[in-house]
Amino acid sequence: MTYTLGLHELAEGCHAYLQPDGGWGWSNAGLVVGDGQSLLVDTLFDLKITRRMLDAMGGATRTAPISTVVNTHANGDHCYGNQLVRDAEIIASDATAHEMAEVPPAMLAALNKAPGEVGDLFRGFFGEFDFEGIEPVLPTRTFTGRFEFEVGGRQVELVEVGPAHTRGDTLVFVPDAKVVYSGDILFIGGTPIVWVGPLENWIAACDLICASDVDHIVPGHGPLTDKAGVVAIRDYLAFVVHEATDRFHGGMDAWDAARDIALDGFSEWGEHGRLAVNVDTVYRTLDPAHKSPDVVEQFRRMRAMETPG
Questions:
Q1: What are the helix (H) ranges across the chain?
Q2: pTM, rounded to two decimals
């Protein structure tokens, strides 16, 4: 299946909405169509692109309106469009619901408008998106661990695998179609970013996907993948744990460690500067007293790692 913008049917009534190139903010979503009702897996980063997605889904949802939404995690590119589906039941893990309230769209709007170096920095990452006037709409139902429900007669299984990428990451399984929507447990063609960790939880989530009866895997970013793509993400995370742990025990500073690690085969993935955050997360896991830099400094470091010279 080609990696193009728009709605792609994976199996009977199961679709992926893809947004190339899958870099910062360009996330994927999913649609599961049942008998007279549909499930939307994630909204998008702003209202304009969420509306474009909902319009593209119109042919499928005209006779099966969206009755349920699942937010796989709290990052804005998977939930800021919730106000456009606010009449649906919105489900997320309890940890995700709490985290969603902490980074409102107004915060990113302010960073994008900030003067000087900070504004330039954030516009370099998120300048293509419009965060003005977005009203945060939080989940109406939360769960912990596992949660099963039906949409139009189709069984859906939610499995909480966070904290990993964020505090409450959720996998969405549709067993009758052998489909899983992974949220940001999978970045395909791009580098994972471990905001919370530990990385071992994320590795376990990859193992769970590989052990599951799925034929269609929809990542949070990037093209559709198979289990080999999941293994590649797992291998990257295991590599970072090993390399960062060695440097931690050798007494190296986290930022120095990130710049010292040679990514080798993983260097071709997009957004490789995310290694700076990932190494810092390993250090924080190994030493709870480790103080991570603030978010502005984290983005500075990622940009620095991707700037030649």
A1: 47-56, 58-61, 94-100, 105-113, 116-126, 199-211, 227-249, 254-260, 275-286, 295-305
A2: 0.97
> Tell me, what's the pLDDT at 139?
98
Distance separating alpha carbons of residues 252 and 192, to the nearest angstrom: 23
The interaxial angle of helices 275-286 and 227-249, nearest 10 deg, is 60
Q: What is the pLDDT of residues 32-86, one digit of tens each?
A: 999 999 999 999 999 999 999 999 999 999 999 999 999 999 999 999 999 999 9
- Residue 291 Cα distances to 163, 279, 284, 286, angstroms: 18, 13, 7, 12
**Running DSSP on this structure, what letter comes out for residue 28?**
-
**Which residue is it, tokens 């709007």?**
109
d(CA 253, CA 19): 37
Cα separation, 167 vs 170, in Å, equals 10
* β-sheet bridge partners, residue 9: 15
Residue 39 CB contacts under 8 Å (≥ 6 apart), including other chains:
30, 31, 32, 66, 67, 68, 69, 70, 151, 154, 156
Asked if 91 and 147 count as a contact pair (C-beta separation under 8 A), the reply is yes
Identify any residues that bridge with 157 across adjacent strands, giving them in sequence order: 148, 173
Yes or no: is domain 6-226 CATH 3.60.15.10?
yes
> Residues 216, 126, 107, CA angle at the centre, nearest 5°?
110
Provide the token pair at 216.
Answer: 């269609």
**SS3 breakdown of the chain: % helix, strand, coil, rounded to 5?**
40, 20, 40
Q: Which residues make Cβ contacts (< 8 Å) with residue 223, sequence separation at least 6?
A: 3, 18, 20, 22, 188, 189
Pick out the chain residues at pLDDT < 50. none
**Length of the chain as a residue count:** 309
Cis peptide bond N-terminal to 192, omega within 30: no
Residue 309: the pLDDT is 66
